[in-house]
Design goal:
Radius of gyration: 20 Å
Number of domains: 1
Largest sheet: none
Order of helices and strands: HHH
Number of strands: 0
Oligomer: single chain
Helix content: 25-40%
Length: 83
């Protein structure tokens, strides 16, 4: 770099709004793939579906099937809610 010149870095941020055609499993108005790309949600198994939506299906450990480990997680959380 020439003397006396400063280095500048720019960051471009693009916001994409859902038009209802993209998958948005958590109904937050942002398509799932955009949520994942922005880091707003996690996708441990890489299937382009936010993990928060998959937990609702019963696969708590996200191994692709509902099994004994998922049942153990459910039973560990079973009981009355504590205020």
């Amino acid at each position: 770099m020439a003397a006396g010149r400063e280095s500048r870095q720019y960051c471009l941020s693009v916001r994409v709004w859902s038009d209802g055609c993209e998958e948005d499993c958590d109904s937050n108005g942002v398509p799932d793939d955009c949520d994942i790309a922005s880091g707003g949600v996690t996708d441990k198994d890489g299937d382009n579906v936010p993990d928060s939506c998959e937990y609702a299906r019963g696969d708590f450990d996200l191994d692709g099937e509902i099994g004994a480990a998922d049942l153990a997680t459910l039973l560990a959380e079973w009981g009355p809610l504590e205020p």
